[in-house]
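User: Could you go from structure to sequence for me? I need the amino acid at each position, not a summary. Structure tokens:
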């Protein structure tokens, strides 16, 4: 899980397969008889959190495991790991050396995530990333994408652009290009990324989730409570979602996994 930076930073972009890369906002199972329950699922994440990309893949597997037991509606919610990050971002090597004490140790952490990513069908090309960006604008874009019906595609495109292609997603022109590649009209992206568009809404939403006690991501919230903390095993996720949807025995409990920042 990636933990947020209350002062400067605590963890940041590190820590510790899915169907098609995209996960539909409305994930339906079964045909004819219809699902047994409808469950709204808020995925609280940051686009520079590698465990969040891993968690996205494991979520897709968990929903497949649920079969026709639930109709899960997925929504992506904001969390800034580095809320005090300068608007222009920071040189990644400088940032991670300062955070972890040495560049060599930082590379050891990266190597571990490369191996985890490979097992999930994800390409973490950390050597292509030159800057650690401010992600507020990316979250503004994700919020807009929900209303356009392409939120999951935009989230996936942002993860891939940053981690696989090394794109600086702190730059607005790059965000517009990424959004357009995911099916959002470039004009819409440019509008929301104008002066202060959607900033207050994103920050208010982020405060709400932090107020629930979320200190690291990814976190999966169902029925107003944290159902899963971290990029847990898909079977663990499926069980937690089943309980949240009312299909399990006993009161829902928070499930966790090694994969949080």
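Assistant: Here is the amino acid at each position, in order:
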């Amino acid at each position: 899980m990636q933990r947020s930076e209350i002062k400067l930073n605590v963890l940041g972009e590190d820590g510790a397969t899915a169907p098609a890369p995209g996960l539909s906002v409305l994930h339906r199972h079964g045909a004819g008889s219809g699902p047994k329950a409808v469950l709204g699922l808020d995925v609280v994440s940051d686009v520079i959190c590698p465990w969040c990309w891993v968690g996205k893949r494991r979520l897709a597997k968990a929903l497949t495991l649920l079969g026709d037991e639930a109709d899960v509606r997925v929504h992506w919610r904001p969390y800034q790991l580095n809320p005090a990050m300068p608007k222009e971002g920071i040189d990644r090597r400088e940032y991670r050396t300062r955070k972890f004490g040495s560049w060599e140790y930082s590379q050891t952490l990266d190597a571990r995530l490369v191996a985890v990513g490979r097992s999930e069908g994800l390409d973490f090309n950390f050597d292509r990333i030159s800057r650690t960006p401010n992600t507020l604008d990316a979250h503004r874009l994700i919020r807009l994408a929900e209303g356009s019906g392409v939120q999951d595609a935009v989230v996936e495109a942002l993860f891939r652009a940053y981690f696989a292609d090394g794109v600086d997603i702190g730059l607005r022109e790059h965000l517009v290009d990424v959004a357009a590649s995911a099916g959002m009209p470039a004009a819409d992206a440019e509008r929301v990324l104008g002066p202060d568009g959607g900033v207050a809404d994103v920050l208010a939403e982020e405060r709400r989730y932090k107020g629930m006690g979320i200190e690291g991501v990814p976190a999966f919230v169902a029925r107003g409570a944290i159902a899963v903390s971290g990029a847990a095993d898909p079977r663990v996720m499926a069980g937690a979602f089943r309980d949240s949807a009312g299909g399990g025995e006993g009161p829902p409990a928070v499930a966790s996994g090694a994969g949080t920042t």
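One structural detail worth keeping in mind: The chain is about 45% helix and 15% strand.
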